[in-house]
């Protein structure tokens, strides 16, 4: 049985003292503006894009390192309960729930949320000057080598998206064309205690986009043939890639 995921959002989790720094950087990167905070303590801040509907959020956290996690949106409270039960059946751990929201951990303890769908249908498009446009359009799960098969099977079964083998290091989940985020599964060389996640940007000109980000205060961590690892001023690590912006 597969899950009809209606929408995907990604939350960048940052402590209170870094929230303004993260907001300044990521609104500049995405051409967005901060929307009205929501949540019991206004801890969730949407980044409203210039086109399409919000899919990138900031979350103010009280503890833990800077990180990111996905939210999967499904239809209605009954659907939410059903999907949460299926997630647990696939090996997830249920942590908490409120009206319209269930917080879980995957088989390799990556936090994620199930949320009732709010009629999002239009993913944001690329932003930036011609020739150097970019878009945040992928969440990469960094999976310990010993848990790669189990974690990959979990996310494929939960989303209902077909899993394809791209290389020895990467698998991919084939997302529907309207989804704002793809899922990339990266097999790590070592075995840290749990899976983590980071954002990937698709860039028309990776070097030009990276230079723009450096002007905004980001720091290049490492360059490879296909991507550049970067740390933003708030400590968020992400990658600029050579993938074409707007591609599925």
Offer a few descriptive terms.
248 residues; alpha+beta; 2,3-Dihydroxybiphenyl 1,2-Dioxygenase, domain 1; 2 domains; globular
Give a structural overview:
This protein is an alpha+beta fold and 248 residues long. The protein folds into 2 domains: 7-116, 2,3-Dihydroxybiphenyl 1,2-Dioxygenase, domain 1; 134-241, 2,3-Dihydroxybiphenyl 1,2-Dioxygenase, domain 1 (Roll), CATH 3.10.180.10. 21% of the residues lie in helices and 37% in strands. It has helices at 16-30, 76-89, 148-159, 206-215; strands spanning 7-14, 33-34, 44-48, 56-60, 67-74, 93-98, 101-105, 111-116, 134-143, 163-165, 170-173, 182-187, 196-203, 219-223, 227-231, 237-241. It starts with 6 loop residues before the first strand and ends in a 7-residue tail after the last strand.
């Amino acid at each position: 049985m597969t899950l009809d995921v209606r929408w995907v959002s990604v939350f960048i989790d940052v402590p209170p003292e870094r929230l303004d720094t993260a907001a300044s950087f990521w609104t500049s990167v995405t051409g967005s503006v901060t929307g009205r905070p929501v949540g019991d303590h206004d801890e969730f801040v949407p980044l409203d894009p210039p086109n399409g509907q919000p899919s990138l959020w900031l979350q103010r956290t009280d503890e833990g390192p800077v990180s990111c996690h996905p939210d999967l949106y499904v239809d209605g409270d009954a659907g939410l309960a059903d999907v949460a039960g299926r997630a647990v059946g696939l090996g997830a751990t249920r942590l908490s729930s409120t009206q319209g929201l269930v917080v879980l951990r995957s088989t390799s303890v990556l936090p994620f949320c199930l949320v009732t769908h709010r009629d999002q249908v239009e993913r944001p498009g690329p932003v930036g000057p011609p020739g150097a446009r970019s878009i945040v359009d992928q969440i990469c799960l960094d999976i310990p080598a010993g848990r790669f098969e189990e974690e990959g099977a979990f996310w494929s079964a939960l989303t209902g998206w077909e899993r394809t083998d791209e290389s020895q290091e990467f698998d991919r989940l084939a997302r529907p064309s309207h989804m704002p985020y793809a899922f990339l599964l990266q097999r790590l060389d070592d075995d840290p205690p749990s899976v983590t996640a980071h954002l990937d940007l698709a860039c028309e000109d990776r070097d030009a986009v990276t230079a723009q980000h450096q002007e905004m205060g980001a720091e290049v961590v490492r360059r490879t043939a296909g991507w550049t690892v970067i740390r933003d001023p708030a400590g968020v690590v992400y990658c600029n890639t050579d993938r074409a912006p707007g591609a599925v």
